[in-house]
Amino acid sequence: MGKLRQITIMMLFLVCLLGSASVRKDTEAAADTRLKSEGWRIQEECSQLTEQMAEEIYTKVLTLRQKLTKGRCTLENGRMVFLTEEIKERIATVRAVFEADETIVRKPCDDPLILGMYEAKEQLATDEAKKEAEACINGWLAELEPEYLKTYRLVLEVVVKLDITDQNYSLYYPVQEEAKETLEPFERYASEHWKENGQERRQMGCERIFEIRQR
């Protein structure tokens, strides 16, 4: 996501959270209460989205992120705001933003990359090669250590395509390529980009150490 685009999304999100500086209507106050207690909020512009749908979508996004990053990260303070709605023919396109505090909880020494390095080190024939491998491993651990227990603010865009005739909906992740936006099925995108391939990462660690043997 481009920096300018992310700043714009954050500004929209903050406006939704803070509301107007003037005295707000009872419905707006109720929406704020819902955001705090249930984790989601529907802006008035989104007339086709029901509360049940909002709850389902919020839960799906939260659960999917937790599932695909389990063991690596934890999520807290999740919230989702459904911002805008555009209706064309019978399809309502709703744009939303999901946010959460995400903390990296996996110890660097438990990273498959590091485990692969140690595995390869044991296969080296000479003490000199093993010493070089240990130095390489320590270098990688030093790079990973600052990320351990570090908390980031996760920001995800979600697009909901809702058929207003039968109330069925699908979730998408908007991918920006230059000036063009492509909507990818949300679960497919998440599976491809959030789920770690531990075996592949372990193999990468092995290969980095085996390079020492080839010198």
TrEMBL record:
Record carries keyword Signal: yes
Entry keyword set: Signal
Superkingdom of origin organism: Bacteria
Cleaved signal peptide residues: 1-21
Protein name as catalogued: DUF3347 domain-containing protein
